[in-house]
Design goal:
Elements: E1 4-10, H1 19-30, E2 38-40, H2 54-63, H3 65-71, E3 76-85, E4 88-97, E5 100-106, H4 116-119, E6 131-133, E7 136-140, H5 149-154, E8 160-165, H6 172-185, E9 189-194, E10 205-207, E11 213-215, E12 221-227, H7 229-237
Parallel strand pairs: 1-2, 2-3, 7-8, 8-9
Antiparallel strand pairs: 1-12, 3-4, 4-5, 6-7, 9-10, 10-11
């Protein structure tokens, strides 16, 4: 594993735009991510939460899956999309690496204030796990899942935790506090990618195991080169058994 790598959080508005417009924006921003970087897009960045067009969104996602794989050439790239299975809809997290799909799991904790559970089926906590890519252990918590600290225990030992989000502006401080605490508690890097729509919190950031956050709400691409030796240093001098 190379000790240094660039972590990238994408941050853009997409709620009131078409699927095609959002896909074009996503492709444009992905092209700005350096080779061999780890890139995260905001939650449901193609469709947003348009419950009246779930079928259309699922069909579009299925249609572009091959292209999404191609977009991960020489990089690791994650996002969530809407998928339909046997008449049920899922908020599905996908991780692509070097033109291959390496993880796919449904969101396990659905946000009740957004009526998400009325329209989506949920996954299970057992779906939340660590995968390894080029020697880097990667885990994910999708938006509302970040609030459940018992889920942090499931991913102890991860080097990078991806948090794709559609997190409201009224709870902006919560997103920032939880994500920084996650980095410190799990002694890991955290990538938060959040929507920058009008009522959303932005706050996309790269967080270190020491809790330092690199963020800028005015940027569409938040990136930071990090050194994975920071993880070893933190875990050596503050030993919590990782």
């Amino acid at each position: 594993m190379t000790s240094k790598k660039t972590l990238v959080a994408l941050q853009f508005s997409y709620e009131n735009k078409s699927l095609k417009e959002n896909f074009e924006t996503l492709k444009h921003l992905l092209c700005q991510a350096p080779k061999n970087s780890i890139v995260l897009a905001p939650e449901l960045c193609l469709s947003g939460y348009k419950y009246d067009s779930l079928k259309e969104s699922a069909q579009f996602s299925k249609k572009i899956l091959d292209e999404l794989q191609e977009l991960s050439t020489c990089k690791t790239f994650a996002l969530t999309i809407i998928e339909e299975k046997n008449g049920s809809y899922f908020n599905m997290l996908k991780i692509f690496h070097n033109k291959k799909l390496v993880q796919s799991r449904p969101k396990a904790k659905l946000f009740p204030l957004g009526s998400e559970e009325k329209f989506f089926s949920s996954g299970t906590e057992e779906d939340i796990s660590i995968i390894e890519i080029d020697g880097i252990k990667i885990a994910t918590l999708v938006c509302f899942e970040l609030r459940f600290t018992e889920l942090w225990q499931r991913i102890l030992g991860a080097d990078v935790i991806l948090v794709p989000s559609f997190w409201g502006k009224l709870r902006k401080k919560h997103l920032e506090l939880f994500s920084q605490a996650l980095g410190v508690a799990n002694q890991a890097f955290v990538i938060v990618a959040n929507s920058s729509d009008k009522n959303m919190a932005s706050s996309s950031s790269i967080i270190t195991p020491f809790g330092n956050a690199y963020k800028d709400d005015s940027l569409a691409v938040v990136k930071q080169e990090v050194d994975f030796r920071e993880i070893k240093k933190m875990r050596k001098y503050i030993d919590i058994g990782l």
